[in-house]
Design goal:
By secondary structure, the protein is α/β, with parallel strands linked by helices. The protein has a single domain, classed as TIM Barrel, CATH 3.20.20.70. The chain contains 12 helices and 13 strands. The protein has a 6-stranded parallel sheet, covered by helices on one side. A 3-stranded mixed sheet has the order 3-7-6. Helix 3 runs parallel beside helix 5. It starts with a strand and ends in a 19-residue tail after the last strand.
């Protein structure tokens, strides 16, 4: 059982601290019926325009680096264990998505699953909100990109075979040993590779998300991960540098880092700071996935070299970045 551990919420005027041992953090699921819109339009300099669907908020995978932790604070929860144990299921998501696409289908080139949570969090096995939303996408013949860490995506192969689809698997670590300090409750890398192979065997395009790369920790695994993913059917790949958007995420990441890897933590922190001019957080969206050091240039060169050697194509979204005003999120939920 996890214990409550949340950084101070910047959206709360007052904060509280436990005196003595904090209580256990139990999994809670809140069913939301007030959702009026499912398609979120966002834009950033590195990713361009995106149309995103989130059926859930929060994620039990508990990845310590997850950028989506900040969005849990916006609905009154914490970015730490609250994000991992207080989940919100938008139980009217399929109906809302269908009604929305009736009005906007001609303006939307594709949809991404997901942004604020993994679309295949374990409770999806019961709620089937992602599956039912994919059925809506099939009815409207809209292309889909899915990014997940879960083999549960293989359950929906019957739908995915009928739509234009790319399934991206996030596998930034090669082994359980290297994964666990940062991805404590995620299916093992081997389980994700097996799921990747199963999806590719059905003729569905598979992409590898080597994200995040943590300099001084998993950058040496890049060639082996690319090779393994290629053997499992991946045809495209992309990578990104670990980044922290808020003080809360930085604080939680550091807390877990020093707990799980006390002898390596200083080295990892210093390597990240080399890429951020002495900071851990990026200063702008433009530099979010860009390192500054010669080491990062070498990491990029290794990635590109093995991409070419193994015959990968670089993953590009259906819509490339356009010169729009910098606006990260137009409507969150």
């Amino acid at each position: 059982m996890r214990q409550v551990a949340n950084p101070p919420n910047p959206y709360h005027k007052y904060s509280a601290e436990y005196v003595g041992e904090p209580p256990d953090a139990k999994l809670e699921v809140f069913e939301e019926t007030a959702t009026r819109s499912m398609i979120v339009k966002s834009w950033s300099p590195d990713l361009g325009r995106r149309f995103v669907v989130n059926c859930y908020r929060g994620c039990v995978h508990g990845c310590t680096y997850c950028f989506a932790r900040q969005y849990h604070e916006m609905i009154g929860y914490g970015a730490g264990t609250d994000f991992e144990t207080k989940l919100v299921a938008k139980i009217n998501a399929p109906e809302v998505l269908r009604n929305e696409l009736k009005k906007t289908r001609q303006k939307i080139p594709y949809l991404e699953f997901s942004f604020a949570s993994d679309p295949y969090v374990p409770i999806e096995a019961n709620y089937e909100l992602t599956r039912r939303c994919l059925e809506v996408c099939r009815d409207f013949r809209i292309p889909v990109f899915i990014l997940t860490k879960s083999p549960l995506v293989t359950r929906d192969l019957d739908i995915l075979k009928d739509i234009e689809c790319t399934v991206g698997f996030s596998i930034p670590f090669l082994s359980v040993e290297t994964s666990r300090p940062f991805e404590p409750y995620v299916p093992t890398p081997e389980a994700r590779f097996r799921a990747m192979e199963k999806v590719a065997a059905e003729g569905i395009e598979v992409a590898l998300a080597l994200a995040p790369v943590i300099p001084g920790y998993n950058d040496n695994e890049i060639p082996q991960i690319l090779k393994k993913a290629k053997e499992c059917g991946a045809s495209r790949a992309f990578m990104s540098l670990v980044h922290f958007a808020t003080d809360s995420i930085e604080e939680y990441f550091l807390k877990r880092l020093y707990e799980k890897l006390p002898t390596h933590a200083d080295k990892i922190v210093n390597r990240i700071k080399e890429e951020r001019n002495g900071r851990l957080q990026h200063r702008s969206m433009e530099e979010r996935n860009k390192g500054r050091s010669e080491r990062w240039k070498m990491i990029n060169d290794v990635f590109e070299l093995h991409m070419r050697k193994l015959g990968y194509e670089k993953y590009e979204r259906l819509e490339k970045p356009k010169a729009e005003p910098v606006q990260f999120q137009q409507r969150l939920f």
